[in-house]
Specification:
The complex is a heterodimer. In chain A, about 40% of the residues lie in helices and about 10% in strands. Chain A is an alpha+beta fold. In chain A, the strands form 4 sheets. Chain A has a 3-stranded antiparallel sheet with strand order 5-6-7. In chain A, strand 8 and strand 9 form a beta hairpin. In chain A, helix 4 packs parallel to helix 11, helix 4 packs across helix 15 and helix 7 packs antiparallel against helix 8. The radius of gyration of chain A is 20 Å and the shape is globular. Chain B is mainly beta. Helices cover about 15% and strands about 35% of the residues of chain B. Chain B is built from 2 helices and 12 strands. In chain B, the strands form 4 sheets. A 3-stranded antiparallel sheet of chain B has the order 1-9-8. A 3-stranded antiparallel sheet of chain B has the order 2-7-6. Classes of the chains: A alpha+beta, B mainly beta. The interface between A and B is large, with 94 and 56 residues.
Chain lengths: ~325, ~120
């Protein structure tokens, strides 16, 4: 979806740079990046340099930088989707209970779908956009950093360095310290949890908690499911703070426009295809977007609930949620 | 790049310190964007930075791991926020095949920087 947005907005002067943040390195990001086939720079960041440099506390997050190299919106939740359907969670057969519980919670995570409309407004209006902030507000809105937070940041970086060196126990020691010192930083937690349940096979990155039967070996104070439940899924991402709170809500983009664009790009004879392969490849083959698909276990459900579509022209492959394709005729139905 | 310095030495080359922290040593002191912090004599000498002295001046926390013989400096605590300035920090990172890309090479265009993760 970032790639689709890039195609739309690059001719109007916007470049998108996606950065996969993962101590597990490039190979962990590769399947997602290759599936997305980005034409924009797509980078990998083992040591969380981008997160530290821009004050990113959770993912996915976006930062706007203008032509002069000035940040005009600091890190905040960034969703490429303009609508989120009301799909009730159905437990997935064959998945362990914990994974289904995680998916059910993730389903309730509240995301702000106004981001793309805000972005278009900025691309078209530049500094006159009501969403472009002045430098003082950019600094003031960035996350706090006192000496406790900074110390936590040093611990996290040391943990990432030690992980890279293969010093697992050392990484866990310093990441645990970082979690205690900067409890609001969810990237720190998700990163650490995602590497600690490696006995869970394909689910290990998403398990984010103790391995059954080895609960006493879990190295962290909390885990993904516990933390999301404690915080409440609705509060997982801080809401986007528009500049003027009295601003009228942005209009919901018409669903028909999306269907039309699917038609235009995939051709009227595009049809759903079944893609074989194992998770997460199966889930992501044909994705035209990466970041929003993989940034949270919640996106696993998005993928499982998504129909891959393939154009007969073979020029375009994509995935659209909530678009049910009828094989007969040229009609697309919802 | 603004990134914690990790080293097993208390003196590091200026170039390394500048690369890892985003602070540049100029006549005025240590600078980033429009912000400069004056430094007393001796913090930088012969193209080498006294890491602990610089950390004290820039209010960077120091975390030591004695067992593993390594120390890390946290980011400077000056503005009370993650961003001290709206000037975008330089970031140079590899793509999936190791080719390096500098964010600053996009000056002149609007940029949306998206942080994501495969977990």
């Amino acid at each position: 979806m970032w790639q689709a947005l890039r195609e739309e907005l690059h001719p109007r002067g916007l470049e998108i740079v996606t950065v996969g943040i993962d101590a597990a390195g490039a190979e962990a990001c590769r399947p997602f990046i290759e599936a997305a086939q980005p034409t924009h720079p797509s980078l990998v960041d083992r040591l969380h340099v981008v997160a530290e440099s821009f004050g990113v506390f959770n993912i996915p997050n976006g930062v706007w930088i203008d032509e002069q190299g000035l940040i005009v919106r600091p890190a905040e939740q960034a969703q490429p989707r303009e609508e989120i359907g009301e799909v009730r969670f159905q437990p997935i057969e064959g998945l362990p209970d914990r994974m289904n519980d995680i998916l059910a919670e993730a389903r309730n995570i509240k995301v702000d779908t106004r981001y793309v409309a805000m972005l278009r407004d900025w691309v078209d209006n530049g500094s006159a956009s009501r969403y472009a902030l002045d430098p003082e507000e950019v600094v003031a809105r960035s996350a706090p950093r006192d000496s406790t937070v900074a110390e936590g940041q040093a611990h996290f970086a040391l943990g990432a360095y030690l992980w890279e060196q293969g010093e697992r126990a050392g990484a866990e020691d310093h990441w645990r310290a970082a979690h205690r010192l900067v409890p609001d930083n969810f990237s720190y937690k998700r990163q650490a949890w995602s590497l600690a349940a490696d006995a869970m096979g394909q689910l290990s990155r998403y398990w984010q908690g103790p391995v059954p039967g080895k609960e006493s070996e879990w190295p962290y104070d909390s885990d993904g499911l516990t933390e999301v439940r404690a915080k409440g899924a609705a509060h997982y991402y801080p809401p986007i703070d528009l500049l003027r709170t009295t601003e009228p809500a942005l209009p919901e983009p018409a669903l028909s426009r999306r269907l039309l664009s699917l038609h235009n790009r995939a051709g009227p004879r595009a049809r759903a295809v079944d893609l074989l392969g194992s998770y997460p490849e199966r889930a992501c083959v044909g994705c035209s977007f990466v970041a929003d698909q993989v940034a949270h276990p919640g996106q696993v459900i998005e993928r499982l609930g998504t129909r891959p579509v393939r154009s007969p022209r073979r020029s375009w492959v994509g995935v659209y949620r909530h678009v049910r394709l009828r094989a007969e005729g040229d009609a697309w139905t919802m | 790049m603004m990134h914690s310095v990790i080293t097993d030495q208390e003196f590091v080359p200026v170039e390394e310190f500048e690369r890892d922290t985003g602070w540049e040593f100029k006549a005025e002191g240590a600078c980033r964007g429009e912000l400069c912090v004056p430094l007393p004599e001796g913090v930088v000498r012969d193209e080498t930075v006294d890491v602990l002295a610089a950390a004290e001046q820039l209010r960077m926390p120091v975390v030591r791991d004695a067992a593993r013989r390594v120390l890390a400096l946290g980011p400077a605590v000056l503005a009370g926020r993650q961003l001290e300035t709206a000037v975008a920090p330089e970031v140079v990172l590899p793509d999936v095949d190791g080719r390096k890309f500098a964010l600053s090479s996009l000056q002149g265009q609007k940029v949306l920087l998206v942080a994501w993760a495969p977990y």
